[in-house]
Amino acid sequence: MQGRVRAEWDPLKKVVIHRPGMEMFFGLMSPYSSLYERAFSRSGARREHEILETILKQEFGVEVIRLKQATLEAASKVPIVKRELINLARETIDYTGDAHAIARAKEEFEENIKYLDLAHFFNILIINPSLNFVVEKGTRNVQLNITKRQPLSNLYFMRDQQFITDSGIVLCRLAKPARRRETIVTKFFWENVMGLSLLHEIEDPGTIEGGEFIPMGKFALVGQGDRTNKEAIDQLLNLEFEFEELAVVHQPMHPLIPSDKPDPMINMHLDTYFNVASSKVVVGCEMLIKEARVEIFHNEGMGTFKKEPKETNLYEYITSKGFEVIDITTLEQMSYASNFLCIRDGHILAVESERNVKNVIDNLKRSANDDPKRYEKLLDQVKADYEHLKNEGQFFPHKKAVYQKGLDVYPINIPNLTGGYGAAHCMTCALERG
């Protein structure tokens, strides 16, 4: 297995996902700090994730690999994988407090390895615990405080820790501290469980996330903005891709948000306002893609890209490549309409955006109450979009343009999972297409 993807519309053969576990519980303790859009039902999210997996397997015949399940199976069968998993867990735990108690706890860890199941060590990785010991006089008078340090509550967004190119896997360096450690787990997975080597690992100070990368056959799009910086782009431009062009898409600040107080979360990744439905059709919010500045770099071979002097915008660039654009409203864009998963050319697994709109509007109303100047224009536009879409009865993906362009859509309703700030595209790492 190569771990290579050339085009977003090539038939999806193999995908990696992660069923959210106890780390989501901790994330929901403070949704804002955990980068979630809003609060939601954890049990509902897990049920929806099971449905997502079943659809991929049963309806589309895709091989689905679950991150935790595959890791534990490999560790149970291959001694070196088990050893490395335990080593990684050992390195993850932080100890503070009474020195004697710390020494005893570390000894107990080693002594108890043979009694503990392998899931124990994987859970250490995703919870990232710190153990603090306070000892007072008396027998076993030890106060143990266990705190979690940035648990990996966003790990189920498996698109972002890496992206798969036509030349191999690029391991990302995620921008936000809440997500930075996720690549420790996925790097272990790629190298030790799947036996795949990395094409490149983004180095500090570069930051990039997988939702910014979209392969499109002879060329690829890569977003640059709040989550992806120029330092990461420069590293990509020194890699040996087969793509003839790399188009760097600069994240547009939303025109309805004051420029002195932007909110990049509204369109944080390229795939949150633009996506590919087929080899001929893309979906995007025209207001944003026409604002998105594009730099074009031509591949001259041997890890050398030359910048084209003339810049353009994403709308002009993509239409110049022969693609037709299905426009979506601001409300649909914020309801994850563009965050669908292309299964094969012209076939997409799309979120029922109508099921998300009320949550989006309610959340935006709260933001507008807290900061009217920042969000009032956006809220007014979203309300107007809602009335228009209700009257027309055309919430994405149930739009005339979708049928007219010959797209085959499988709608999925995941209102809890989307509360984490993403949909089907964000939750899947397409490992093999073709």
Brief synopsis:
The protein is of the alpha/beta class and 434 residues long. The protein has helices spanning 22-27, 42-59, 67-77, 79-92, 99-112, 118-127, 182-193, 230-236, 286-289, 314-320, 330-334, 357-370, 372-392, 400-404, and strands at 12-17, 63-66, 94-97, 129-135, 142-148, 162-165, 168-171, 198-201, 213-216, 219-224, 245-250, 274-276, 281-284, 293-301, 304-307, 312-313, 324-327, 341-344, 347-351, 408-412, 429-433. It folds into two domains: 12-70 and 152-433, L-arginine/glycine Amidinotransferase, Chain A; 76-148, no CATH class.
Q: If you had to describe this structure to a student in words, what would you say it looks like?
A:
It is a single chain. This protein is an alpha/beta fold and 434 residues long. 34% of the residues lie in helices and 23% in strands. It has helices at residues 22-27, 42-59, 67-77, 79-92, 99-112, 118-127, 182-193, 230-236, 286-289, 314-320, 330-334, 357-370, 372-392, 400-404; strands at residues 12-17, 63-66, 94-97, 129-135, 142-148, 162-165, 168-171, 198-201, 213-216, 219-224, 245-250, 274-276, 281-284, 293-301, 304-307, 312-313, 324-327, 341-344, 347-351, 408-412, 429-433. The strands form six sheets. Strands 9, 10, 11, 14, 15 and 16 form a six-stranded mixed β-sheet that branches. Strands 2-1-21 form a three-stranded mixed β-sheet. A hairpin with a 4-residue loop joins strand 12 and strand 13 (281-284). It starts with 11 loop residues before the first strand and ends with a strand. The model has no long low-confidence stretch (mean pLDDT 97).
